Amino acid sequence: MRRSLVLLSAGLTVLSTGFASAENNTPRNLILFIPDGMRALKITPETAPAMAEVRDKGVNFKNSHSLFPTFTMANGSAMSTGHYLGDTGVFSNTIWTNYTSVPAGDTVVPFIENDAVLGDIDEHFKGDYLNEDTVLKMARDKGLSTAAIGKVGPTYQWDHTDHPEKTGTHSIIVDDATGGKAGVALSDEMKNALTKAGLPLTTPGRGDNGKAGDAKTPGTTTANVAQQAYFADVAAKVVLPMFKARNKPFVLVFWSRDPDGTQHNQGDSLNQILPGINGPSTMASIRNVDNNLAQIRKALDDLGLAANTNIMIQADHGFSTISKESKTSPSAKISYDDTPKDFLPMGFLAIDLAKALDLPLFDPNDKNAVVTGNAHPKAGNGVLGKDPTKPDLVVATNGGSDLIYLPNKNKKLAARTIKALMEQDYISGLFVDDSLGHFPGTLPLSSINLRGKAATPTPAIVVNFRSYASACGEAPTNCSVQVADTVLRQGQGMHGSFSRGDTYNFMAAIGPDFKAGFVDELPVSNADVGMTAAQLLGLRGSQNGGLVGRVMSEALPNGVVPKAFKTVEKSKKKSENGLETVLNVQRVGSQRYFDAAGFPGRTLGLEPEAGKQKTAGK
User: Fold this and answer.
1) Contact partners, residue 301, CB within 8 Å, separation at least 6
2) Which residues touch 509 (CB under 8 Å, ≥6 apart)?
3) How many Å apart are CA 448 and CA 452, to the nearest integer?
4) HEC states along 268-335?
5) What would the mean pLDDT of 581-586 be, rounded to a whole number?
6) Which among 76, 31, 5, 142 is positioned nearest to 538, based on CA atoms?
7) pLDDT tens track for 368-385
8) Considering the entire predicted model, what is its pTM?
9) What is the pLDDT of residue 12?
10) 226 to 17, 232, 579: CA distances (angstroms)
11) Nearest to 28 by CA among 296, 299, 300, 313
């Protein structure tokens, strides 16, 4: 850890004299714009002119990376702190907390895209479950105006330790929950400003965009227009004018649910791989978020703020079309009322492990009810063992990857679990907690920066699911398909895997402290976003862990341009059935960037090794 911090400190020292804004007498503003689930190669002047303009006239981060597991809260924690997930402890959207969270529905595996749940987890983990300072907190402490607007969960995470009921300066938080019992309270200043602008004090719902459908009913064909129009109006008509009137620097986070929400729920492709997440609903959602960006940039122009405001755009992850197909899964051979014949049910990993390990399966989202026969866990999660309150194994279901926890750190159970996983055709790569030892066919959590100073429990095994490219007629990353453990259906959308389709997120930047018309060939990641934002604003926070990103100096005028190189890491020994986890890595100094990982032939971005690796059919 000490070495990482020394390297970081040295990097910042070099950079502080290397570009203009650090010494600029005029403080800059910063907007962090997150188009949730935006794939890098879906942006063109035709599909998303506002984002394309930022990319083409500013900095094009063409070698970008979401952190694995490629989920929203995980990558939001990296952006907001500059730390990898091994430090933030946000290993996915659903995690095991080792205590019962009441706001999450009395479960030990809470889905954390919820303000009340975040507050509950904070309280349990000594007031700060992230265990690292966020950019918004540091900016607020320094006296800057701060606000976060958009999708519930990741928006609040940017300043989750702020308590509006206490005296002092606070961040403005506006998300789905605003105006409701679970929402962060609005100040009187914000209430008056919203009313004056003719905007309601309660965020409108998603309407039809929130409808996911079921196995027989297609999901939405409508983008999240009304709700995001409200968020964009709050930013452009209320918050930015308010910040200008305060006459001091500001930081504004805008987290757009689209295209993520629409890609998840879209009804263009029910139970079919094509068109998947490349249908008309997705394209409408991309244009929707692009319109939001255009409105915010116009407001900056109209208010005379554009020349002094940096804008960083970064998606939390890419996206893939869902597959529910497996030839080996016992769960796929069972008949379920809500699942098409021969398709994987929600919770297939927990069901298959319970059978393979001969352990009883209980549902932590249904008062620990036993799961037998043709039932599956309501939310996919499972606790395995004779006593559900003292489980031997916990499965936290997430989507393109799942988390497995072993509360008793049982190495023999770890070995049996890994052996069982290796037999399934939907598995593509396993990462195991270093403390459990080395297992054939796997890589350690530390190899992907998942072992650090996290306050929350560290998973024993992170399971990556199979992915491949469909014949969608576009770049392979736009055609990514993945097996996903989710209530959503084949043909809808998901992320979370180590497919390059999920790690390849859209990133761009523009403003007075960024180069113009610059194509950045070096690898960058969402952890770098947090470090670069802090550097631009001159912020320094305390650090508990040493798994940190780097300042993207090459994108800054007169900044240092480091060199990069590629490496491949593999399991020390193959499994009994000839499988090995392979990790494609890029390096910039001590920084490691992860392109794709898994079993070659089962992960998009890893070519099969002829005659050596088992592959899984489409």
Assistant:
1) none
2) 54, 58, 59, 61, 310, 311, 312, 313, 555
3) 11
4) CCCCCCCCHHHCHHHHHHHHHHHHHHHHHHHHHHHCCCHHHEEEEEECCCCCEEEECECCCCHHHHCC
5) 98
6) 142
7) 999 999 999 999 999 999
8) 0.95
9) 39
10) 45, 10, 48
11) 300
Cα 611 to Cα 204: distance, rounded to the nearest angstrom: 55
**Cα–Cα distance measured from residue 112 to residue 120, given in angstroms and rounded to the nearest whole number:** 10
Q: Rounded to 10 degrees, what is the CA torsion of 20, 25, 29, 32?
A: 30
Question: Could you report the per-residue pLDDT of 2-18, keeping only the tens digit for each?
Answer: 333 333 333 433 333 33
Structure tokens at 60: 């094009």
394 HSE (CA, 13 A, CB side): 29
Cα–Cα distance for residue pair 313/298, rounded to 1 Å: 16
Give the number of residues written for the chain: 618
Q: Name 25's Cβ contacts closer than 8 Å, sequence gap at least 6.
A: none
C-alpha span between 314 and 305 (Å, rounded)? 21
User: 537: which residues sit within 8 A by CB, 6+ positions away?
Assistant: 28, 30, 135, 138, 139, 142, 144, 249, 251
3-state secondary structure of 463: strand
Q: Using the Cα atoms of residue 86, residue 87, residue 89 and residue 90 in order, give the sign of their dihedral.
A: negative
Please state the three-class secondary structure of 108-165 as a single string.
Answer: CCCECCCHHHHHHHHHHCCCCCCCCCCHHHHHHHCCCEEEEEECCCHHHHCCCCCCCC
Contact, 243 vs 224, CB < 8 A? no
Chain position carrying tokens 């008056």: 192
